[in-house]
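hey so i finally got around to running the thing on that chain from the lab meeting. sorry it took forever, my laptop kept dying and i had to restart like 3 times. anyway pasting the input first so we r on the same page abt which one it is
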Amino acid sequence: MSDIAYDPWSPAFVANPYPAFERIRAERPVFFHEPTGQWVVSRYADVDALLRDRRLGRSYLHIASHEEFGREPEAEFLKPFWDLVRAGMLDVEPPAHTRLRRLVSKAFTARRVEGLRPTIRRLATELASGLADRGGGDLLAEVAEPLPVNVIAEMLGVPETDRSLLRPWSADICGMYELNPSQEAQRTAVRAAVEFSDYLRGLARARRAEPRDDLISALAGVVDEGDRLTEDELIGTCVLLLNAGHEATVNATGNGWWSLFRNPGELERLRADHSLIPTAVEELMRYDTPAPMFERWVLEDIAVAGVDIPRGAEIALQFASANRDPAVFSDPDRLDIGRDPNPHITFGLGIHYCLGAPLARIELAESYGALLRAAPDLRLAGEPRWKPGYVLRGLESLLVER
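ok and heres what got predicted. didnt touch it at all, straight out
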């Protein structure tokens, strides 16, 4: 099979990767893609197994240097970015990951997240009602984007006057996670990392001095068997919560509504029965996955589906493909908002399973519910365009009207 079918830089592929993945799963479920330098893995069973396999890692720096792993050393100008990212738990492995997740989980509790539901519902209702009162607009800019950033800002304790800073910082930092980011994107990410770190450092010190009922204060006060987060770890965790909890949720909202508009029968079904919202949230995340690919480094030689992959290789786990695998999902290309069971892997699996999954589910459910109540007659006002990135895959805008 030609590798041409898999082209994460192609606008046509980004807009609809599913026909290519159908072919890839059937003909060559594990293959090396020269342009990205990655091994592409597309079947659910393989992606599922590799997410749990400790012979793979989000990083290799706990066992080897870049040079020892056959990689180029990182450019010196990127140091502020990587220092920030590696102070959080996303790109580290045990035992550092185990310690960080344990400490953060003591503050980022299920009770704290559930306690945000009234605030999330109020914010979602205000945003949806505003869109409805105006007769429509850009659903992404007016509802999908402001909701999660305001929720996370509320949770962290960021003053309202500063919240407009968060979205640009988040978007700029996340630009580094695309495949082979440009020099400009890298420098933009570094600048955002420095500015965001400086801002959060000041906020964290203020909360240490005068704690409040917010997550930054809770993280600053966490102590477990004499251990606590360092200031850098606290800042890295806050940045991770914003980036992971914002970008993917915005894309999930936009992709989900675009899926509903393209499947009017399911949209009418949801309008008629709001009790389907929880299963609809799961199905919409499966059907058009907002974060379709996650990478892992191979820490020991492995074999996947009979294909040998050497230590030092990078694997591209295709969540979007796995979530459409007919071996797991019956009629996988059909949107079914009542699908149950629905073992999608949009939030990952294993030790790196998304810590913010419960919060994302609440935000999405409240967002869909608010829009369905405020504008039950909402309809598409123009064909949307996809942003160029594949790793964080979403629409540029979604124009709607009543």
